[in-house]
Automatic annotation (TrEMBL):
(3S)-3-hydroxy-3-methylglutaryl-CoA binds at residues 29, 143, 242, 275. Residues 178-246, 254-345 form the Hydroxymethylglutaryl-coenzyme A synthase C-terminal domain. It holds the Pfam family HMG_CoA_synt_N. Residues 3-163 form the Hydroxymethylglutaryl-coenzyme A synthase N-terminal domain. This is Hydroxymethylglutaryl-CoA synthase. The active site is at residues 79, 111, 233. Belongs to the thiolase-like superfamily. HMG-CoA synthase family.
Length: 395
């Protein structure tokens, strides 16, 4: 049975901040961010956007009557959860008008959660092939202002429909997993910004990749020479180069044959969006599918997912014939090209201001041009609404 990604969509906030300007504020050489970290812009959510609106915006274009009727599970993965108890996916399920006999659950493991979601989706489809699973990775990456992590912030969501006989990517059965209890990045309850030991997180990421690769090979996975592309979790896009250096050390001949082009196309979206935690790997995958000028039909892609704390997983997929007909690349290009650049003050107010205060009742200003917006809280109950855009898309 062939199971995999049948459709995939991206959503990013409509505003961004340039890292060149952040470097100026920090009084450092912009080349450190542009080249050393490999980031140009960070996506900045408006006060009426959050992980729910990003998730719903990413999934909406994937839905028609048939897919709405066949989605039996929604798995939303996030590091930036909005409630200690209720799954954020329930708001998304409601905004998208999905059927009531559907299970909805939230997955958490730093940046790794969506990969667990994808594997669970694969198993569910194997069990019940007439049903589909909607997996959404959605996050706002937020570090303390003026910290080393600030340049690696970002926001965005990727929605994927997992189904039998997928139209885009067939997932392979082989899995390489590696878990290690380590404090390289974490966010204690009541903190809105993550704590991170950046250098340690890079070390553990690379160790996790080495071990997950070995585990994948031991599980019967493809050799590096059978792969055409590699997509890595990219908290900042330079990380893909660091990850590739693991293969240069352990599989030098195959890595040399692949060269930098194995991962360079997968870096394009990440450079313009920034870290999106759970969504970052899938943004790398979309970047490759949307921007490659080669015909990818039948080509194998290796993927490495990493979530600090830590869990790593290596898996692979083959691009399905006819995938181009189902690409959303034009819509994604339009979305990125139509964004508005923010100055430092506005970025700072939106990322670090008290836009979502810890009080029972507040409302947010109307800013977003997306299909859904976060309106604030009433008695601590989060309020979401459809905008004119979603009504237009539905008609
Ligand atoms: N021109 C070009 N490159 C420059 C430069 C300049 N003027 N100045 C510095 N660099 C390079 C450095 O050589 C380094 O490259 P390398 O890693 O290939 O050696 C890179 O820029 C980063 O410099 P560094 O001094 O290590 O940055 P930092 O101490 O500010 O920390 C992170 C960088 C990524 C650790 C930090 O941003 C962070 O903690 N991020 C959040 C956590 C994270 O993303 N972890 C990843 C794994 S999950």
């Amino acid at each position: 049975m062939k199971i995999g990604i049948d459709d995939i969509g991206l959503s990013v906030p409509q505003h961004f901040f340039a890292l060149e300007e952040l470097a100026e504020r920090h009084g450092i050489d912009p080349q450190k961010y542009l080249v050393g970290i490999g980031q140009e812009f960070m996506a900045v959510p408006a006060p009426d956007e959050d992980i729910v609106t990003l998730a719903a915006n990413a999934a909406l274009p994937l839905l028609d009557d048939a897919s709405r009727a066949s989605i039996a599970t929604v798995i939303l993965a996030t590091e930036s959860g909005i409630d200690q108890s209720k799954a954020a996916g329930l708001f998304v399920h409601s905004l998208l008008g999905l059927r009531a006999d559907c299970r909805v659950v939230e997955f958490k493991q730093a940046c790794y959660g969506a990969t667990a979601g994808l594997q669970m989706a694969r198993a569910l489809v194997a069990q019940r092939p007439h049903e589909k699973v909607l997996v959404i990775a959605t996050d706002i990456a937020r570090y303390e202002q003026n910290s080393e992590g600030e340049c690696t912030q970002g926001a965005g969501a990727v929605a994927m429909i997992v189904a039998e006989n997928p139209r885009l990517l067939e997932l392979h059965p082989h899995q390489g997993r590696y878990s290690l209890d380590v404090s390289d990045f974490w966010r204690p309850n009541l903190r809105s910004t993550a704590l991170v030991d950046g250098k340690l997180s890079i070390e553990v990421y690379l160790e996790s990749l080495r071990n997950a690769w070995q585990s994948y090979r031991a599980d019967g996975g493809l050799g590096l020479e059978d792969m055409s592309f590699l997509c890595f979790h990219q908290p900042f896009t330079k990380m893909a180069k660091k990850a590739f250096s693991v293969f240069e050390a352990i599989e030098p001949e195959a890595a040399k044959a692949l060269g930098e082009k194995a991962y360079s196309t997968s870096q394009l979206y990440g450079k313009a969006i920034g870290n999106c935690y759970t969504a970052s790997l899938y943004i790398a995958l979309l970047s490759l599918l949307d921007n490659s000028d080669e015909d990818l039909t039948g080509r194998n892609i290796g993927l490495f997912s990493y979530g600090s704390g830590s869990v790593g997983e290596f898996f692979s997929a083959t691009v399905v014939p006819g995938y181009q007909a189902h690409s959303r690349r034009k819509a994604h290009a339009r979305m990125l090209a139509s964004r508005t650049r923010l100055g430092h003050e506005q970025y700072s107010n939106w990322f670090y201001g008290d836009n979502h205060p810890a009080v029972a009742d507040y409302s947010t200003p109307y800013v977003t041009g997306g299909a859904f917006r976060y309106g604030g809280c009433e008695g601590y109950r989060r309020q979401y609404e459809s905008t004119a855009l979603s009504l237009k898309m539905a008609s």
